[in-house]
Structure formats: C-alpha cells, structure tokens
Design a protein that fits this description.
Strand order of the largest sheet: 4-3-2-1-5
Number of strands: 7
Oligomer: single chain
Radius of gyration: 20 Å
Strand content: 15-25%
Largest sheet: 5 strands, antiparallel
Shape: elongated
Number of helices: 6
Order of helices and strands: HEHEEEHEHHEHE
Amino acid sequence: MSRNRHQRRRGRRRSGKKLGRDMRAVLIRQVAHFPLRECCINENWQDQRMASITFARNRPDGRVAVAAFVVDLGCLGVKSAFANPAITLSEYESRLAQGQATKQIRCDPAFAVKLIQGAYEYAKQLGFGPDPDYYYSKEIFGSIDPTSCTETIEYGRDGKPFYFAGPYDDVDKIMNHLTQKLGRDGFHFVVPLSPTEGFYPVGEGDEEGEDDAWDEDEE
C-alpha cells in the first residue's frame, strides 16, 4: 500500500510540474492577440552573431505583455527566453527597452520570428535544445507569419557552425559535443585559453573528449 501511495505522489508531482508549464503557455497565448507595440533587436546582432530580441504587446488596461529572447546564430540557438503577460509600461521601458547592453532598434516582427525559429532548428540539428522557457515564451508570436519575410538569415559562419564561448557556458561540454558530432575541422570556434589568457582563434583544433551529446528539451 505504501509503495502505491508513493507512486501516486510522484505522479502528482510530475503532473503539477507539467500543469505549471502549460499554464504559463496559456497565459502568454491569451495576450498574443493584443496589438504589437514594438519588436526590437540589438543593432549589432550581425557582427556579434548573437541577437537580443524583444516583443511587446499593448494590453487594454495600459500594461504591456512582453517576451524576450537571447539567440545564438552560431550554433546554440535560443540561449535564454522570458515572458510576462502583464508588466507596467514604466517597468518595460526601464528594464527591457532601456536596460539592454547594446542599442536596440525596431525590426520587422516576421523577420524576428524567422530568425528565432531558424536558430532553434539549426541548433536542434546539432543536438542543442533551447532554454526550456522558450516553449511558453514563443506563444507571444501569435499570428505573426515568418514566411512573409523573404530575407535570408545565415546561421553558423562561412558554412560551418560557429561557437563563441559565453561567460556562463560549459565550454568543455560544448566543445566535446561539437567535436564528436562534426569532427575537429567541422566547426569554427573562439574559446578561452584559460581564465587569464585570451582566446583560441577561430577554427583552431581542440583536444578530443568523450561524447557528451545534448538532447532537445521537449515539453
């Protein structure tokens, strides 16, 4: 009997976690039909190969529904995502519109969705999943049609995946995975030599390691 009760409790905990994720998606989906206030991207995204994208929708009560994405076009895809169905206009302007490290400019929302979805698919092919919060944050897209954007977006660099190490990355894990999947010459990269010694140049080899493949984090 005790074993059965324990199994039921475990089942309830798993169901609760799933319900929480579903509810976040529902809350964002409910505001996705509101008028789009703006869609912004960092001005230097092409040079950096890293895009910081924000969608904001005006609510009838004067507040703003918002979602933000940090997207690596090199190989990792959606590195972070966040969404909130209702924040004040002043909070939006101070924390998201003006609080970015680089200048934000307005962009075509169809282009932004196309960029995000394309980076997601490119990373998926390499074995990298997105930030789990992407699965509910993307509901902010609503009826935006990425196929209406005819612009070509390049992922990777010079025809190969490109990994530029971030400050919070598990660099060894990512490098080992890319090396096992693509070979030592199958991708470009810039990674630190050590905490104080700058970076490896793009495309230089790395020691082989064990396969540490990442699976996509699906709902």
